[in-house]
Amino acid sequence: MKTILAAIMASKREYAKLPFFSFLKDEALTPEQRLSFYPCMAHFIISFGDLNKYILRSEPARDEFHHWRSYLEDFRKLGFERPRTGADWLEFLWSDETHVNRLLSYRLVNLILNASSVQRLLIIEAIEEIGGVLFSLTARLAGRVQERNGVELRYLGDFHFSLESGRKDEIELDEEERRKTSQMVEEVFRIFTEWTGELLRFAVADVYGTSPALRRTRPFIRASMRRATTPAG
Q1: What is the pTM of this model?
Q2: Residue 146 CB neighbours (<10 A)
Q3: Are 213 and 35 contacting, i.e. CB atoms less than 8 angstroms apart?
């Protein structure tokens, strides 16, 4: 088990280097501009509530309802409900522009349904570490928004995945289960890496427009465009 946990932390360090997180750190942009990706992940965040409640955990997380409710609360506070209404939002959420977010939910379900209880525990661990990378950065931005505008963003500022209790490092895996579990964890990081590409592509289009001249201004944007257009495996 320790080998898998060490691999998760190594993958987390590489994941934190992705272009999307450089975008979130870009001090040339306002906090609101850096949070412009927020509507793009709506489908996955709401779907994850169901995934966490009904599929991922043996016992539903009691606070999951509040997590996606606070997502919607921040959605309104940031003004994202104004540009689109009803059917326009449905069309957006099921458009090609956000297809990676939808596929992320479905791919996670496929992994989880084929996982043993130990593998499921390690998938949760990987997702928690992945979430920690994002929310450690958005918490800073939420703090800046509150300082500037007096608006408290609860989801972006305080959200965290509920950590499963257990002494994971003491669970023994045989060689075959360790191999399969390693593959599952690698797949979790791979599909979330693709997810960050879509979030960044959405944010770049919102902040900079789609002009190639604008995209050339920042190396991490060029890199993200290459990753975001790579077909899913």
Answers
A1: 0.84
A2: 14
A3: no
